[in-house]
Amino acid sequence: AKLKVQMDGRQIIGLLALAHGARASAVPATHVQYAAFNWRTQWYPVAWARDCPMGAPFRATLLDEDYAVVLREGDAPPMAFRDRCPHRLASLSEGRLTKQGWIQCSYHGFAFDGGTGECRAIPQLLGTSPRAPLCADAVACARVGGLVWINPGADPVDPPDVPPDVPELVDPSFDCMQTVRDIPVDSTLLAENIMCADHGRWCHHLPAFDMYAASKGRPQEVTVVTEPRITLTARVDAQLSATATAGLTAQTQFSPPCTIVSGRRDKRGDSGFVQAFWVVPVGVGRSRLLSAQLVRKPAPGAPHAPRAPPWRPRAWLQQRAMSRRWVRQCLQNDFLDEDSYLIATQQPRVLAAELAAHEAARTPRTSVTTEDVVDCQDGSAPPSPTSPAFVRRRLYQYRTPSEPLLVELGRFFDAAVPNMPHRYERPELLRAPCPPREIVLDRWSQHTAICPESAAVARRANAVALASRVLLGTLALSLACVRPSVRWAPANLAAAVVLASVWRRASQIVARFHFVQCAERHRAHLARIPERVLADEHLVAVEAPADPPDG
Prior knowledge:
The chain is an alpha+beta fold. It is built from 18 helices and 17 strands.
């Protein structure tokens, strides 16, 4: 009877397809390869090496699993284990690195080899062997391009190479500015946001995003490569203004599981500036965003950018500050705050729809809808009476010329995300409401606490603010006890002004590492849209619905 229902369902598909002037086609090859994507056998960056302690275990979370990672001095390769000791399941990340290069659990002292995971020492059994072999769960770990990588499914003794998705990252002719932030948003939504060229002018007020945005005159070309690895690439002619082109191609590329690279490239494929993102799936509704701004160094003998002279203190300080990582990270946090909460408001609806589709897949169906046929013809997950798929094209209303890449990215997620480990083990995570703005945009827990350089700057700035405040109070009390002629002396007034200025500036720096983007600040940002983006008078009513992007 079950076979009969399936045959009837496929006949319905064919009849509906013919009624819509289309042919019932087989499952697209890309969907089959997307659905076969194995999340466990991929390389994931978990941190910048400069942010990690040397010679001490630290915890990294990936796909809702915790790992204990250890960086070692010199040329010794890093080590990684699933964060549980096989003895009594305590966290290995709370242990230490021995002189032999083993990781030792701090609960009972069991020590494990970093390559094989074999137990090398049990202090309670010194001089004897354990009755049965005991192994920690070691995973492949590497340090490439300044990043610490984990491959949960690879052989830790002989792992494959980390794919060179960002060749500029290991190119010595490029300078690299590294940033990191944890965001309470699902990696699928964050990847869609980064690869969306249309939101830049509205969320960030940056006209430069238009170089990546398509139009009717400059269509977006999307190519999909499946061998040797899946790669989605969008290209569009970069445009400087409404009438002038840059002579470059704006390219955005996604390489699963998490790498996004964008840049404006010439005909040879070279670029002087590349932006790389790694949207690491920490867990359901959680991501770690690692990014790198890669700028080509001037060639030997080429003129350098002019340096601001010291007698122009504002320009001189600004130029020096931009070379500091913590300054660039603060600017990156400002940038992320402008749209992260919008993605968080989107998340409950999208994840709830995904969960509903997953739960519906457990209930056999005996009919196929017209939507199923249209989705199948568009190349999305094929309809089946027993396994309905979550199709983002049913949820979203794609309309702009820059969205064909998002359509293809959605197809990949529709097919591959159901295979993600632990995705549906805790349904409450997919049903979770949007957190408050203060949690979504909390810079302290999401960045400062995991970036030692920023934490050190915040501590120093806080100490300076406290010291200047104390000195200013002491000066005020001492001047209150002297005669007016001394109290209002120029030197005393100057000291008070300097201390107040230092206190104010240091307090501003401290505040940049905490919650900043309150609702009032967001409304002020919106108020500048007519001035910076598009005047309301230029808005034109849509006379007819635009055609959806070609699939």
